[in-house]
Amino acid sequence: MTEDDDTHLPEKQKKRLLIPILGSVLGTLLMVLFLGAAGVAVLAVTHPDTPLPPEWNPNQPLAVSDPVSPLTPWKLRQALSDPAQCVAVLLNAGQAVARDPLEVSENCHVRNRVALSGVGQARVDTIETSCATALRMAMWEQHGVQPAAEEFFGSSVAVVRQIGSYNCRPIRTTQGPSTRWSTHSTADAIDITGFDLADGQRVRLIRDWDGDGPKAAFLRAVRDSACTWFATTLSPDFNSLHADHFHLQARGWGTCR
Questions:
Q1: How far apart (Å, rounded) are the C-alpha atoms in residues 28 and 20?
Q2: Is residue 188 within 8 Å of residue 170, measured between CB atoms?
Q3: Hey, is 28 helix, strand or coil?
Q4: What is the distance between the alpha carbons of residues 242 and 65, in angstroms, rounded to a whole number?
């Protein structure tokens, strides 16, 4: 018997010789299947006639009107991290005009500034704010505010009422002035006082937050949906300083109260 002749090897030794061979073949087959599936996936995404809807296609940028998918939060982060993309998405979604940056001081500035007069179906009293705040507003209006209005009133929201975004000042607290600068000082926040419905009804936080009717339920629903689209959401439940408005921030750590 030569070194290469295994004809007379015991069965156990033959099985031990076959195991690495079979493992190698199986590994190769799995790699081929993986590469084939990856190629099909790439082709499905990049082909101009891809069956993937835009909200599921990672190569398609965020569109506010697209249905929400698992990719939407990632697409929103991509848009917010790119000033040019943020403005482009916003211009397709609302009545906005890009403005030159505002530089007042190290603490007070609006570097990706837009003038906003509407988002989706709703008008907004014209305000200058950061693109990040405006884009989050547009996502909230489309996927939170309008669905809640239809649910509770069978009507749409015609106007979102606000009382300001940019304000060069420190944070206000119930204990008095703070040494920390407010997110309003960079227009990374906006204060919302209520909504005017297309059917003529008016909903205001100062008057309608407390109660068990549809207006109170609507306000809680839109507060909860704001927590999805803003990095920080403060309502009358937070403290007395917010008794008449939602404080919605583009920056923060997920506080929702």
A1: 12
A2: no
A3: helix
A4: 30
CA gap 216, 223 in Å, rounded: 11
pLDDT by 10s per residue, the chain, length 257: 444 444 454 565 555 555 555 556 666 666 656 655 444 444 455 566 788 999 999 999 999 999 999 999 999 999 999 999 999 999 988 789 999 999 999 999 999 999 999 999 999 999 999 999 999 999 999 999 999 999 999 999 999 999 999 999 999 898 887 889 999 999 999 999 999 999 999 999 999 999 889 999 999 999 999 999 999 999 999 999 999 999 999 999 999 99
**CB neighbourhood size of 114 (10 A):** 25
Q: Are 169 and 185 in contact (CB under 8 A)?
A: yes
Structure-token pair, residue 38 = 């990856």
Cα–Cα–Cα angle for 10, 13, 19, rounded to 5 degrees: 140
Euclidean distance between CA atoms 117 and 200, whole angstroms: 20
Q: Are 215 and 197 in contact (CB under 8 A)?
A: no
Which single residue is written with the structure tokens 């799995």? 30
DSSP code of 184? G
List the one residue out of 143, 182, 141, 148 whose CA is nearest residue 165.
182
Distant-in-sequence, close-in-space partners of 180: CB < 8 Å, separation ≥ 6: 170, 171
| Residues 163 and 124: beta-carbon distance below 8 Å | no
**Residue whose token pair is 């205001």:** 204
Residue with tokens 């040494």: 179
Rg (CA), the chain: 27
Q: What CA–CA distances, in Å, run from 184 to 96, 163, 187, 251?
A: 19, 12, 5, 11
**Residue 8: HSE in the Cβ half-sphere, 13 Å Cα cutoff:** 3
Task: Kindly report the pTM of this predicted structure.
Answer: 0.81
